[in-house]
Amino acid sequence: MKALQRLESAHPQEIANRILKQACALLEGRPRDDLTVVVALIGEG
Fold it and tell me: Which of 1, 8, 29, 37 could form a disulfide with 16 if both were Cys (CB 3.0 to 4.6 A apart)?
């Protein structure tokens, strides 16, 4: 969460890239399976 709070951009692709980068770092760059990241904005319309 802290990494996401430090993002300067709210662009979905940048957020997804950051999440994926952090996940790979936690897995020492070797995930056991494919990784999928979905970023969505949910709000009142």
Answer: 37
